[in-house]
């Protein structure tokens, strides 16, 4: 019975949030666009959007060598830690373990989301 009342409370809060979003969503969107007007390209034509898309793509492409170098620096740090693992203290080992657990958890969540929020992979 407690679970049913919690579900009803959750549903009521969700309905209240939906009503609030319906009432204030347009005003929030307008205020957000006005606040960030410096990022809006005028006129918003298809050609200008395509140009910006290409700029973003090639900017990201140009940043790959820097990211690649940073990745190898990270790997070198891990190799250094592994070589000196005898000097590793409990705090650093704990941080490394938590980081590994977090990565694994994100992987699992990604798999569940990719399967359509099912645990077994079967859709009902």
Structure, explained:
By secondary structure, this protein is mainly α. It contains four helices and no strands. Keywords: ATP synthesis, CF(0), Hydrogen ion transport, Ion transport, Membrane, Mitochondrion, Transport. Its main location: mitochondrion. One of its GO terms (biological process) is proton motive force-driven ATP synthesis. InterPro entries: ATP_synth_F0_gsu_mt (IPR006808).
List keywords for this structure.
single chain; 124 residues; mainly alpha; flat
What Rg, in angstroms, do the CA atoms define?
A: 24 Å
Tell me about the biggest sheet? Answer: none
- Indicate the mean pLDDT: 87
Series of secondary-structure elements, N-terminal to C-terminal: HHHH
Number of strands: 0
Shape: flat
Question: Percent range for helical residues?
Answer: over 70%
Note the gap between the termini: 26 Å
Q: How many separate helices?
A: 4
Assign the structural class, choosing from mainly alpha, mainly beta, alpha/beta, alpha+beta, or little secondary structure.
Answer: mainly alpha
Work out the strand percent: under 5%
Catalogue the unreliable spans. none
Keywords: ATP synthesis, CF(0), Hydrogen ion transport, Ion transport, Membrane, Mitochondrion, Transport
GO biological process, one term: proton motive force-driven ATP synthesis
Subcellular location: Mitochondrion membrane
InterPro entries: ATP_synth_F0_gsu_mt (IPR006808)
Secondary structure: elements and pairs:
Layout: H1 2-35, H2 46-62, H3 64-83, H4 90-114
Short description:
One of its GO terms (molecular function) is proton transmembrane transporter activity. Belongs to the ATPase g subunit family. With 124 residues, the chain is mainly α.
């Amino acid at each position: 019975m407690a679970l049913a009342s919690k579900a009803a409370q959750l549903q009521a809060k969700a309905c209240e949030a939906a009503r609030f979003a319906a009432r204030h969503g347009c005003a929030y969107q307008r205020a957000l666009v006005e606040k960030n007007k410096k990022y809006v390209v005028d006129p918003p034509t298809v050609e200008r959007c395509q140009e910006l898309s290409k700029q973003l793509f090639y900017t990201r492409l140009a940043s790959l060598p820097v990211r690649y170098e940073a990745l190898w620096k990270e790997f070198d740090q891990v190799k250094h830690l592994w070589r000196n693992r005898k000097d590793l203290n409990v705090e650093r080992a704990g941080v490394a373990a938590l980081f590994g657990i977090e990565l694994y958890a994100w992987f699992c969540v990604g798999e569940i989301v990719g399967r359509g929020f099912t645990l077994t992979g079967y859709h009902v």
